[in-house]
Design brief:
alpha/beta; 99 residues
Length: 99
């Protein structure tokens, strides 16, 4: 998995490429770092994410809850069909609307 972060005026965009699984501890760290910064919105660009495991889903859900507690928003601004399918099957696609 590869990630890049872009700080914009009122949001942070994290681009995630590849596979998110139990070996992807950097994914959680990157989201947590973004949540600790001043921007109110963190956007995940997952268009080139080819797979997300249950461990990756746990990170997404925990990060979403942490964002709410901090009065911030965690959005998925773009996602691959595979990620969309997994979120729908698990029943969490509503909390991660794609723009």
């Amino acid at each position: 998995m590869k990630m890049s972060r872009k700080n914009e005026d009122e949001r942070i965009v994290i681009k995630v490429v590849g596979t998110i699984d139990q070996e992807s501890s950097d994914f959680e760290s990157e989201i947590n770092k973004a949540l600790d910064l001043g921007q109110k919105t963190i956007c995940l660009d997952m268009k080139k994410t080819v797979y997300i495991s249950s461990a990756g889903l746990c990170v997404l859900i925990a990060s979403y809850k942490r964002a709410l507690a901090l009065h911030k928003r965690l959005l998925i601004t773009d996602m691959s069909d595979r990620v969309r399918e997994v979120l729908e099957v698990v029943g969490v696609s509503d909390i991660f609307p794609s723009k």
